[in-house]
Amino acid sequence: MSAIPDVQGSIDRRRIAIDQVGIKNIRHPIRIRDKSAGIQHTVAVFNMYVGLPHNFKGTHMSRFVEILNRDEHELSVESFAPMLRTMVERLEARSGHLEMCFPYFIAKAAPVSGVRSLMDYEVSFIGKLTEDGQHEFTIKVVVPVTSLCPCSKEISAYGAHNQRSHVTVTATVNDYLWIEEIVQLVESQASCEVYGLLKRPDEKSVTERAYDNPKFVEDMVRDVAVLLNAEPRIDAYVVESENFESIHNHSAYALIERDKRKGL
User: Fold this and answer.
1) Is 220 exposed, middle or buried (0-12, 13-18, 19+ CB in 10 A)?
2) pLDDT averaged over the chain?
């Protein structure tokens, strides 16, 4: 029986390297460490890429799926970095990029009644392995909060308009950082937190709390940035806030980016 030709491994003569090539949007079950409950089971969407040298025609796409299913049915946070290195080695590449995005649930108690409910947060883990062997790990968390407009409060005879906002923190870390820690950091700087379930006394409480704590979109990113600057486990970050305006047909948006390693 004749050997099956390896077309992907054949020589490409255009001499143009590809920065990222691989697979997108593949789902796989994972286990995530939960600060309060121990282990949380969820499903992640993976993007897996490697750099392709100029002399190779293509990469072996099936190997990405093999790596994802290699050791166990469910992946864990601890296997994330080793999987990135394995991916680069198996694909005979010099650089790699691995992402997994998943819903993460935190049980929260309403502020007055104490009734408990689950809040879901969109979380991404992003790993990069450069050609010189440097590994970088980034965690991204989208945190829904309430913001109340200071201008509306100041100029109105009664009331003030408020909206739900998404504050996104993308942090490159040098040590383990709990998802819950990022969520709590952001929620502490909002006009008010968002909850999955509220009774009437809770609705009164969160409405009045937001009214007493008005925040522009600019206030939100600056206040969160102050805390990110003070966190030694974070080397670099981007903090974004998008306010889904209740009296406009557009969003208000602000972003701060800083690389503490460079003093920027």
Assistant:
1) buried
2) 91
38 close to 76: Cβ distance less than 8 angstroms:
no
pLDDT at 150: 94
Sign (positive or negative) of CA dihedral 11, 15, 19, 23: negative
- Residue 170 sits at φ, ψ, to 5 deg, of -115, 110
Q: Are the CB atoms for 102 and 132 separated by under 8 Å? A: no
Residue 160 has pLDDT above 70, yes or no: yes
In the chain, the percentage of residues whose pLDDT exceeds 70 is 94
Tell the residue number behind the tokens 């700087």, with chain if given: 189
Q: Which two tokens stand for residue 122?
A: 């969109």
The C-alpha angle 19, 21, 26, rounded to 5 degrees, equals 140
Closest CA to 90 of 68, 119, 117: 68
Please report the pLDDT score of residue 8 as a whole number.
63
The pTM score is 0.90
Amino acid at 1: M
Contact assessment for residue 239 and residue 167, using Cβ atoms and an 8 Å cutoff: yes
Q: How far is the C-alpha of 139 from the C-alpha of 243, rounded, in Å?
A: 22
Structure tokens at 261: 């390693």
